Amino acid sequence: MLQRYYHPNRRFRRLAQRAEGHNPHVHIPVDVRLEDDTYILSAFVPGIAPEDVKIEVIEDTVTISGEFVDSSEEGTRFLLRERPQGHFSRTLRLPTELDAGKSDADIVNGVLSLRVPKAEIAKAKVVKVKAK
């Protein structure tokens, strides 16, 4: 049986790193909904300018990335630090092909809204039956 090595200071080192802003896993929450033939993604990106968000749409995958920049002075010591710091990236795979050329996005009050329509190939087609 494989035993995991436990170091008593590991937990305290992680807490200290988070307090100093060294959190390598910044997670942004995302909601996805479908309206007609368009996927609408909403993500929290507080304090980030629209030009600092990078969005890639490839086939059926959407990637949202950017960086939360620390606005405090150099050498500032914190007692508690919970605001996100550092790079974030979120990749979502949607159930159908997407039309990247018709996508658009905006940020209002720290919420990114991205609208990505389904590709023509993925839209349902109506076939009329003719009687003979």
Number of beta-strand segments: 7
Named at the architecture level, the CATH assignment is Sandwich
Q: Main beta sheet, described?
A: 4 strands, antiparallel
CATH topology call: Immunoglobulin-like
Binned strand content: 25-35%
Element-by-element helix/strand order = HEEEEEEE
Helical region count?
A: 1
Helical residues, percent: under 10%
Spatial arrangement of strands, main beta sheet: 1-2-7-6
Shape: rod-shaped
Give the integer mean of the pLDDT values: 82
What low-confidence regions span 5 or more consecutive residues with pLDDT below 50? none
Radius of gyration: 21 Å
Structural class: mainly beta
The CATH class turns out to be Mainly Beta
List the domain count as a whole number.
Answer: 1
Measured distance between first and last alpha carbons: 73 Å
What can you tell me about this protein's structure?
- The chain has 132 residues and is mostly beta strands.
- The protein has a single domain, classed as Immunoglobulin-like, CATH 2.60.40.
- Helices cover 8% and strands 35% of the residues.
- The protein has one helix and seven strands; from the N terminus they run αβββββββ.
- A four-stranded antiparallel beta sheet has the order 1-2-7-6, with no helix packed on it. It has a three-stranded antiparallel beta sheet with strand order 3-4-5, with no helix packed on it.
- A hairpin with a 2-residue loop joins β3 and β4 (61-68).
- It is rod-shaped, with a radius of gyration of 21 Å.
- The model has no long low-confidence stretch (mean pLDDT 82).
